[in-house]
Amino acid sequence: MPLGELRARIYRTTKRSDLVEKTLDAINDAIELLTAHGDFAADLVEGSVAISSSEYAQSIVISTTFTRFRKIKYLRPSTYSLYLKKTDPAKIFIEKNPTLGQEKIDVWYRAGDNLVFKLSTLSSLMLYGYYQYPERFDDESDDDDTNWFIDNMEGTVATMACAIMFEDMGNSDEAARLEAKALKWLAVHKNDKQDG
What's the domain count of the chain? Predict the structure, then answer.
């Protein structure tokens, strides 16, 4: 569904065709909110990044490596046949004797804007898969613009966008009703669109 048709659908429900910018913001917010409710195959980006072949402990900067990053699906050095395991940074030390300072290996964790990983075997390339947020529509968006989310779940996006707008207009009851409806529709679509 093109963006222009989605806007028109929202205007019919909210009766506020004068709120053009707020409607666009609500569409963007609705897509971002709904995307965070699942790991959708269309949001998966896979690739590789060069790493130092002489260091066992390294990090990858999220903001310079990944576009519209949401969360990691996997990290795997190119020399490995298994994926690195995610760990809690507070549990990086082996529990048998944490005073010795022995760290777990073949694990990764997030530390601020970095993905930190500890390897047992050196590698020069890290393979990755991560989920990204769909690109936001901007004020200059053409009414013919679209993305996979509104192409496949236009009713869900329209309903959630209306819920956001009604909440902003002070109609909490209608907002809650529409949000519940959007989440119910999302649950139906999720099985078909979910990754894995």
Answer: 2
Q: Same domain, yes or no, for 9 and 84?
A: no
Give the global pTM: 0.84
pLDDT lower than 70: segments of the chain? 96-101, 196
Query: Are 60 and 121 spatial neighbours (Cβ–Cβ below 8 Å)?
Result: no
pLDDT digits (tens, 9 = 90+) for 61-72: 999 999 999 999
CB 57 within 8 A of CB 123: no
Same domain, 125 and 186: no
Boundaries of domain holding 49:
44-132
Dist. CA 146–CA 135, nearest whole Å: 10
> Of 132, 148, 164, which marks where a domain is finished?
132
pLDDT in tens, 143-182: 888 889 999 999 999 999 999 999 999 999 999 999 999 9
Cβ neighbours of residue 183 closer than 8 Å, sequence gap 6 or more: 37, 160
Residue 182: both structure tokens together: 């959007």
